[in-house]
Amino acid sequence: MKAILTLLAAASLLCGQEKKAPPEWNVFVGTYTRPQKSKGIYAWRFQPATGKLTSLGLVAETTSPSYLAVHPNQHFLYAVNEVNSGMVSAFEIDEAAGKLKPLNQVPSKGSGPCHLTTDKSGKWLYVANYNNGSVAAFPIHDDGSLGESSAFVQHTGSSVNPQRQRGPHAHDTVISPDGRYVFVADLGLDQVLGYRVDAGRGGMATEDPAITKLAPGTGPRHLAFRPDGRFLYVLSEMLCNVTAFRYDAARGTTEEMQTIPTLPADYTGTKSGAEIAVHRSGNYLYASNRGHDTIAVFRIDLTSGKLSPIGNVSTRGKTPRGFGIDPTGNWLFAGNQDSDNMTMFRIDLKTGNLSPVGDPIEVFSPVCVVFSAIK
Fold it and tell me: Are 190 and 133 in contact (CB under 8 A)?
């Protein structure tokens, strides 16, 4: 009975959303430009009803836009420029053409910015700087452009791995489902830190963060909430596992429940966790494995929030760094950084399984996939 109710709830949610969903979306892919083959951000026009994908080519020339974020109003897009002298770029989205109009660029307040997100109001942008382990908040103006950093915090400390964890390495910025906190995974500290979203403090209260500690040597990279806000999942880059936490939204605190590997038990090759996402139904979780070149698929228990493995699916390429699930919940796009291609999968809403569709799509050094509505 519980399984039937779960499926009915998911189907109801999906159907309700799809009635409101635009018939077409722009798919933007952030890349690394260091190999000199890529020149910036590329885009495709996507029809989720049919799976048709039409290339729009290079839509913005910019240096190593390795991670992207779309503004809640769907009119603006933001990109980190992952270089030593870190920058953040703001663009206006031309919905009809899919092109990006540069608005402005500001310093990221750190080195090697690798992730960014906006808050739910669309008034603040948060950036994680990997190399020096810092986090900065930026005001978003009405025209979509960015102001200079209005709040900043420098992480300090280290952990047990002398090669990877001599100092802090902020790797992710994620807004809690209720919009009250921005959570930052720090690979170098083996911690996830939660900062209050606070307009009166420049967008982020930097003192007394809620701290979630992970096992030494975990190397937390990215995290994802279940949409109902009851559970938080943290992906380990270094150990390739997912740790599940019960989340107390009132206090911004967590309680560890489970750690589960993203790789088969008999795998002994190179391994590195990369991206994690929870399906909008709340029933499935996906995590990418570099080295093994797969996406691990898990079922999420409706009541406990715990994970059970479904299997690993080849990404049909090398080094799947980032992937994105489209807003309808029917499709997943995986970027294979070292084979210069992107694979499109259909998601089975009854099982969570992934089925590849068509041939891999050529795109140089893909790292991040995001979607914007064509209204």
Answer: no
User: What single-letter amino acid sits at 150?
Assistant: S
pLDDT at 11 over 60: no
Radius of gyration of the chain (CA): 19
142, part of any domain: yes
97 within domain boundaries: yes
Per-residue pLDDT reduced to its tens digit, 107-132 = 999 999 999 999 999 999 999 999 99
CA–CA distance, 343 with 362 (Å, rounded to integer): 9
Residue 128 structural domain = 38-313
**How far are the Cα atoms of 272, 286, 289, 375 from residue 294, in angstroms, in the given order?**
11, 10, 5, 34
Number of structural domains in the chain = 1
349 sits in which H/E element: none
| CATH code, domain with 120 | 2.130.10.10
338, part of any domain: no
Q: pTM of the entire structure?
A: 0.93
Is there a contact between 199 and 180 (Cβ–Cβ < 8 Å)? no
Within 13 Å, how many C-alpha atoms sit on residue 364's CB side? 14
For a pLDDT cut of 90, what percent of the chain falls above it? 91
Residue 267 lies in a domain: yes
